[in-house]
Amino acid sequence: MPDNGTPLSEERIAYLEGLVSQARTAAAIFSQCTQEDVDRIVKPMVIAGLKQAQNLARLAVEETRIGVMEDKALKNMVATEFVYNYIKDKRTVGVIREYPERGIVELAEPIGVIFSLTPITNPTSTVLFKCIMAIKTRNAVIFSPHPSAWRCCSEAVKIMYETAVKHGAPEGVFTCLESHTLQDNAYLMHHKDIGLIDATGGPGAVKAAYSSGKPALGVGAGNTPVYLEKTADIDMAVVDIITSKTFDNGTICASEQTVVIDDEIYDRVLHKFAALGSHICSEKEAEVLGQTVIDPATGFMQPMAVGQKATDIARFAGIKVKPNTKLLLAPIKGVGREYPLSVEKLFPVLAVYRAHSVDEALKTCVDVNYLGGLGHTAVIFSNNDAIVRQFGNLINAGRIIVNSPGSIGALGGIYNDMVPTFSFGCGTGGGNSTTDNINVYHYLNIKRMARRTPAHMWFRVPNQIYFNMNAVENLRNFPSRSTVIISNPSLEQIGHVDVVRRALPPQTQVRVTIIPDAEPDIKIIAQGVEALNFYKADQIIALGGGSVIDAAKIMKLKYESPEADLEELAAPFLDIRKRVVQYPTEKINHSRLIAISTTSGTGSEVTPFAVMTDKERGVKVTLADYSLTPDVAIVDPQFVMSMPKGLTVDTGVDCLTHALEAGVSIFASPYTDSNAMQAIRLVFKYLPEAYENPRDEEARTMMHNAACIAAIAFSNASVGVNHALAHAFGARFGVAHGRANALMLPHVIAYNASVPTKFMPSPNQRGYDAHKKYAMIADLLGLGGHTVEEKVARLVTATEQLLDRLAVPRSIAELGISKEEFERAMPDLAKNAFDDPSWRSNPRMPLVSELVELYWSAYRGRGMSQPKAATKAEKVKEEAYV
Amino acid sequence: MTTTKTPAYLEVNGDDAAPALQGACDKLDSGDDLTLDFSRVVRIDPGAVRGLEALAQAASEKAAKITLRGVNVEVYKVLKLARLTSRFSRES
To answer: How much is the mean pLDDT over chain A?
Structure first.
């Protein structure tokens, strides 16, 4: 292809523009065709190609002086019949694949105009193949054949074009460049209307295609290693290799280049090759052959040898061979530039290497693979599956052909079920974008239409929940050989532990483990697990507030699965169903966990959460998994009748916050709503009564139920930004969780009810409805109001009134925290609140600046139905934190 | 194709638009406003695309304004692929 360095003339540019314009129009028209239209055109094209297979093969050999006519005819037939067999039922127009269970539909979009370079080695077969693919996918192609194969290629294009147009393809769908220069190719490669370059050919053409900046399929050189392992069927292997390497005089780039043979079979294999018409070169002959067919300056094969007969090549090199010699075998002692015959040789010369071990053989194959053959093709003959797999793992090749010929095997559809092709993708190793056998799907833009699929939801609760006064008596229904009660000192002191002990069946061996009344740490857990092991417990009863029940959950986990790594299990996650870490399912012990709550707030008796501290590392570990949920929950108000007022308020407000946040969570469902709404109703009605009349049995019972019901809601719908704010604030200033929640609650309701700055992504939400949910709650509470806004405002006011009635501090300032101290803490507060996973189920995604604003609203406190705008000075500080 | 030629209005009937478009092209005078009604065209052939290309070229040279009316979306996509949409005004 001449490159005279001169710019293209105006006439030449007009000619090239005309080709592109014609192809563009054809592609545009073609886009209207249906699958049936396309299939109606493809079939006669295939038949025309089959009919002309021999004629085109003869033209190709006459013009290129490369290869074997009979083999080229066979290639033309594979390029038509085998390709057709693969594509005939494939959908390439409109909807091509559907995945109803995933809500995914794939649709085909044609590329438009493809600029296609075709090689000298497989000229007409490549053209036939590409024409059929292009019509099947409704694309137009401008062909640029190798200059030394132009006549046969243009004839192949003409046959395909006339048949295609006759059966309905648009005029101009294929064109073939007249004699051309590198500048022509470069001009077209950079043309805005060329959608794809499909370059099959030498490294130069492929590199030019990829360098153009256009999407390209560039398929180039190979260097196929063959491992002939000692367990192979030698007769089959030798015939396959000869068949493949002599096919079209070795012009297929997937053909075998160096055969690495195990020492044990080396002589036998060579003898077999010789018996079947191969000439085994002496050391001297191999040296001369290398000097003849490999260019010493470049290290690449001499073009004059490409596709020539073995006898002719022997003649060039001055080697005497028998007249019917098919193949020249040249023993080599290594791989690399110093061993010329170890490179790619597209002619019937095969390097052979004697390997003295599997390790040496594999290393030699890797060396050949890396000497210009990366990503292309490799072959192994072996009946040792382990070695075959090892070969597959070691070799970087898009096609690893096992116990079959390399070239014909790589073409696909004959010796194996690979996709039939005449273009081999060589992956990144070969500078290509794919390792696939190029096929119709590479000639399409595949569009994926993804329908909204609601996430699977769940509603999980403990197996059994017993409630109302003296529900503890139900313990009699749980036979146990060895029960360990875990509780804390104060509950033991007031006799609650004895109440539980008495309720157990008389034959039960009962032990009590008392742990401190505080968030459990790793040492307490370890001691508890030791006790469970010592007593071989088959039942654990957690009697206490959240801390005790959480401790019992973690003890049970470690008792049943000692290998459980708590730090790993506490790894963060976004969606519990897709979490990275899985909780153990293998258990060496089995025990039943019965949780008896002695406060009316956390609801830990029904939740899948547990919190502990790791004092040594100074971190809090939060575990969340439904396997942590107690097996049985007992909600018996007798254990909360003596709860102090402060604890009643703190836990009660926590319960309200759980219910309100679960109610508007992005994971809320009708199942959780029913629980959340009922809990809210119960809290508004009974919390003030329980606070003001602690011995009121009905109020205590209902609040105890409310806490459990709210926990059922948030166990399945999670909480929100209120908890994130309260966690960070409570940890920093040592404020009880319920109290911290109370400080934020009215402000968070107002915040969530307003139009979000950022919406939270959630496939289950149909529009933003937090404000409507709050309005629904206001209706449930009978707060009145006509509009959603009015109802939300009344809910905020009602919440504030409830908190006032409970005498909860209503501003952070009231806690005695100075403004300066709060300002100093703000960067950490905002960061920690944003890091807290609680808000990830909040209906509104909080910006850090909004967290800061909410904190300041809570600082200023009461009467805040809307987050108040910060003062100018505060604003400056808020911005600094952000 | 059959066309009904009015001073500034041409109805394109579909199957054989090329001659009519060529005729319109020949008769286009400087400063003309011409509306081509594609309401009845469901599929467009290569001749029609070439006709539109020629018409667009003539309109550009004669400073005429050509409006395509009632082009269905499938045909519109073809005109888009052929880079013709920007060369005409459109009416729905």
So the answer is: 93
pLDDT single digits (tens) A92-146? 999 999 999 999 999 999 999 999 999 999 999 999 999 999 999 999 999 999 9
Q: Is the pLDDT of residue A636 over 60?
A: yes
Q: What percent of chain A has pLDDT over 90?
A: 87
Q: Hey, of B15, B44, B81, which one would you mutate to test binding to chain A, going by the most A CBs within 10 A of its CB?
A: B81
CA dihedral sign, ordered A296, A300, A304, A305? positive
Of the candidate ranges A71-80, A219-228, A653-662, the one whose mean pLDDT is the lowest: A219-228
Interface check for B53 against chain A (CB to CB < 8 A): the answer is yes
Q: Give, in order, the Cα–Cα distances in Å from A688 to each of A126, A602, A651, A699, A802.
A: 85, 18, 13, 9, 7
Q: Are B22 and B48 within 8 A, CB to CB? A: no
Q: Please choose, from the candidates A504, A499, A512, the residue with its C-alpha nearest in 3D space to the C-alpha of residue A548.
A: A512
pLDDT score, position B7: 43
Catalytic residue among A253, A281, A365, A655: A253
pLDDT grade for B92, boundaries at 50, 70 and 90: confident
Our CA-based measurement puts residue A171 at a distance from the nearest CA of chain B, in whole angstroms, of 7
| Catalytic-residue membership of A426 | no
Is A649 in contact with A807 (CB distance < 8 Å)? yes
Residue A5 pLDDT: 61
pLDDT exceeds 90 at position A77: yes
Q: Which pLDDT value is given to residue A867? A: 42
Chain A's closest residue to B46, CA to CA, is: A29
The contacts of residue A800 (CB under 8 Å, 6+ apart) are A746, A810, A862, A863, A865
Q: Say if CB A156 and CB A54 are below 8 A apart.
A: no
Strand order through the sheet with A397-402: A278-280, A327-331, A349-355, A256-262, A224-228, A375-381, A397-402
Task: Compare all CA atoms of chain A with the CA of B52 and give the residue at the minimum distance.
Answer: A25
How far is Cα A773 from Cα A788, in angstroms, rounded to an integer? Answer: 9
3-state secondary structure of A514: strand
In three state form, how does the secondary structure of A347-393 look? Answer: CCEEEEEEECCHHHHHHHHHHHHHCCCCEEEEEEECCCHHHHHHHHH
Contacts of A390-393 spanning 24+ positions with Cβ under 8 A: A390/A362, A391/A227, A391/A362, A391/A365
Classify burial at B62, counting beta carbons within 10 Å of its beta carbon; exposed 0-12, middle 13-18, buried 19 or more: middle
Alpha-carbon distance of A717 to A605, in angstroms, equals 17
Does B77 contact A31 at a Cβ distance shorter than 8 Å?
yes
Say yes or no for a CB contact (<8 Å) between B79 and A28: yes
Beta carbons of B82 and A32 less than 8 Å apart = no
Those residues whose C-beta lies under 8 Å from the C-beta of residue A257, and which sit 6 or more positions away, are A222, A223, A224, A225, A226, A342, A343, A344, A345, A350, A351, A368, A373
Q: How far is B51 from chain A (nearest CA, A)?
A: 12
* Cβ separation A171–B79 shorter than 8 A: no
Phi and psi at residue A197, in whole multiples of 5°? Answer: -105, 125
Residue B57 forms contact with A (CB below 8 Å): no
Task: Tell me the three state secondary structure of residue A307.
Answer: coil
Chain B interface test: which of A20, A22, A31, A93 (most B C-beta within 10 Å): A31
Q: Is the pLDDT of residue A880 over 50?
A: no
What ipTM score was computed for the predicted complex, to two decimals?
0.81
Residue B2 has a pLDDT of 46
How far apart CA A482 and CA A727 sit, in angstroms, is: 38
Pair of tokens at residue A541: 């009863």
Comparing CB atoms, the residue among A25, A31, A193 nearest residue B46 is: A25
